[in-house]
């Protein structure tokens, strides 16, 4: 192979359309730009332009901010844990962690941790390790004969 034999793959490039060469070409007269006016001219960028009126993105006030250190927890209710125990996807004999919840199909992603909430009813005495739990959820688990360990929140990097 020689340098003068190098070619693009077939179909990798397309020939440019020669516009303005008569109406028979299909791209004559207005060359595919429609009628007259601002959009028929070159250099038009009118996204958000409202004819000189103050655009809506400038009329509306800015509100709030996005906290870049926000931790996104996966919420698990104790009723969902009981359903998983009844279905046999979670073994009550081993501690329930984020990894066992993913393996049991209770949650799909770990995200930044698991937060336990008290919706539903728990009958099985489970040992649960989560990153956050409501007071009612902890009371419900201890009442059922289990134990909740809240894993310490890691501080985000500054």
Produce the secondary structure layout.
Elements: H1 56-59, E1 74-77, H2 78-87, H3 98-103, E2 114-117, E3 127-130, E4 132-133, H4 135-143, E5 147-150
Parallel strand pairs: 1-2, 2-4, 3-5
Structural commentary:
With 158 residues, this protein is of the alpha/beta class. The chain folds into 2 domains: 19-64, no CATH class; 74-150, Ribosomal Protein L15, Chain: K, domain 2, CATH 3.100.10.10. It contains 4 helices and 5 strands; from the N terminus they run αβααβββαβ. It has helices at residues 56-59, 78-87, 98-103, 135-143, and strands at residues 74-77, 114-117, 127-130, 132-133, 147-150. The mean pLDDT is 90.
Descriptive tags:
158 residues, alpha/beta, Ribosomal Protein L15, Chain: K, domain 2, three-stranded parallel β-sheet, 5 strands
């Amino acid at each position: 192979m020689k340098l003068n034999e190098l070619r693009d793959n077939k179909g990798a490039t397309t020939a440019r359309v020669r516009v303005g060469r008569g109406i028979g070409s299909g791209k004559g007269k207005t060359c595919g730009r429609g009628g007259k006016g601002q959009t028929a001219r070159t250099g038009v960028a009118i996204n958000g332009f409202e004819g000189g009126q103050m655009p809506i993105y400038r009329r509306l006030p800015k509100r709030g901010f996005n906290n870049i250190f926000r931790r996104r927890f996966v919420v698990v209710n104790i009723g969902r844990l009981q359903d998983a125990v009844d279905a046999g996807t979670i073994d009550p004999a081993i501690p329930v962690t984020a990894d066992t919840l993913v393996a049991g199909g209770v949650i799909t992603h770990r995200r930044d941790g698991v937060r336990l909430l008290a919706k539903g009813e728990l009958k099985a005495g489970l040992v649960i390790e989560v990153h956050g739990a409501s007071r009612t959820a902890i009371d419900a688990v201890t009442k059922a004969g289990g134990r909740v360990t809240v894993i310490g929140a890691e501080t985000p990097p500054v």
